[in-house]
Automatic annotation (TrEMBL):
Physiological role: Catalyzes the complex heterocyclic radical-mediated conversion of 6-carboxy-5,6,7,8-tetrahydropterin (CPH4) to 7-carboxy-7-deazaguanine (CDG), a step common to the biosynthetic pathways of all 7-deazapurine-containing compounds.
Protein source organism: Geopseudomonas sagittaria
Protein name: 7-carboxy-7-deazaguanine synthase
Segments forming domain Radical SAM core: 20-211
Gene: queE
Residues given in the record as S-adenosyl-L-methionine binding sites: 39-41, 74
Gene3D superfamilies in the record: Aldolase class I (3.20.20.70)
Family: Belongs to the radical SAM superfamily. 7-carboxy-7-deazaguanine synthase family.
Length: 215
């Protein structure tokens, strides 16, 4: 329990996306990310933060009496001690999810964790960072997310769903329109026209709190 992690913030809010959207959730936001997606809304987590021990993190999380805990970033897996943190949160009885860019190996993550793997589209400006070996690691407990910036991104995402049979590997496929870049209605109409096996999500937190830290 003496391992430390650099933490940007720990807060209680509503989950804005994924399969638990709308549910009260404690977020543990780790500091640092090796990617620079052009639409990033958490650049404040790239640096700074506070060193905390696993014990301190678990104590602060427990104070909110959560059912759901989401470990996010930045890129949480960029800190090796994220792995023991995820295990400790599962051991404490929480339903745990991990939001990861998909650029780093997800295999060491505790199987009880729902891994939300973001496949970076060409419009993200980081498509070259995708670690496609992760696709073979996916289980029905996991979720794959695409942030769609354009019709080209949508077509690319469809091709990846087909190529890696993602609808058979993962429990949820998620698509979000890049905020202020693509109309949600356009993405909805494309999904309907193709009868695509994905869930449209609109990032609830952006509409409620406009990306304010702590939400």
């Amino acid at each position: 329990m003496n391992q430390t992690l650099r933490i940007t913030e720990i807060f209680h809010s509503l989950q804005g996306e994924t399969r638990t959207v709308g549910l009260p959730t404690v977020f543990v936001r780790l500091t640092g990310c090796p990617l620079r997606c052009q639409y990033c809304d958490t650049a404040y987590a790239f640096s700074g933060g506070e060193l905390m021990t696993l014990e301190q993190i678990l104590e602060q999380v427990a104070g909110y009496r959560p059912r759901y805990v989401c470990v996010t970033g930045g890129e949480p897996l960029a800190q090796p001690n994220c792995i023991p943190l995820l295990k400790a949160l599962c051991d404490a009885g929480y339903q745990v999810s991990l939001e990861t860019s998909g650029a780093l190996d997800i295999a060491p993550v505790d199987v009880r964790v729902s891994r939300v793997v973001d496949l970076k589209t060409p419009g993200s400006a980081e498509v070259g960072r995708n670690r496609y070996e992760n696709m073979a690691e996916l289980t029905r407990n996991d979720q794959v997310k695409f942030v769609i910036c354009s019709r080209e991104d949508y077509d690319w995402a469809v091709s990846k769903i087909i190529e890696y049979r993602l609808d058979q590997r993962a429990g949820e496929l998620l698509m979000s329109p890049s905020h202020h870049e693509l109309e949600a209605r356009s993405l909805a109409e494309w999904i309907i026209a193709d009868n695509l096996p994905v869930r449209l999500q609109l990032q609830l937190h952006k509409y409620l709190w406009n990306d304010e830290p702590g939400h």
